[in-house]
Design the sequence.
């Protein structure tokens, strides 16, 4: 069955993963890689009900984007040039209180290579700054739910002049 939440669709079935029956999900419609739902929610197993599985897809796999307007708020702006409404990166493994966010233009000013928009989740020691639903913290690298990651990817690389 297809589940729509926050503009993202995911397919969910109770099917076989290897030789075990599990709730499995397909996150990319053009892929055939079904992933067990317990990867995203350890509370889910083959005895979980359909409603529990749907809820896990919505809450844990797709999740919630940051608050409306967060991309242009003072909480999400480049620490160097104050750019807003653009993709930002944070320092990997730095305490939240000391986080400085940096935009692509400022990162490029420190290095030779251009930032590749299609392959830039990690740039050197920086990772995509994907905010949690409160907007006050960030998801761990590669652990952001789909809606939060989609929010980040939809932001432009540079401020529109
Ligand atoms: Zn900047």
Sequence:
């Amino acid at each position: 069955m297809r589940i729509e939440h926050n503009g993202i669709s995911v397919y969910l079935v109770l099917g076989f993963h290897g030789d075990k029956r599990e709730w499995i999900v397909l996150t990319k419609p053009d892929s055939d890689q079904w992933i067990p739902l317990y990867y995203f929610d350890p509370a889910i197993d083959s005895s979980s009900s359909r409603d529990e599985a749907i809820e896990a897809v919505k809450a844990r796999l797709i999740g919630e984007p940051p608050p409306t307007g967060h991309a242009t708020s003072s909480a999400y702006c480049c620490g160097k040039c104050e750019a807003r409404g653009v993709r930002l990166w944070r320092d990997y493994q730095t305490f939240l209180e000391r986080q400085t966010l940096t935009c692509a233009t400022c990162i490029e000013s420190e290095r030779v290579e251009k930032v590749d928009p299609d392959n830039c989740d990690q740039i050197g020691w920086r990772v995509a700054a994907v905010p949690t639903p409160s907007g006050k913290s960030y998801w761990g690298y590669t652990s952001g739910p789909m809606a939060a990651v989609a929010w980040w990817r939809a932001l432009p690389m540079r401020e529109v002049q």
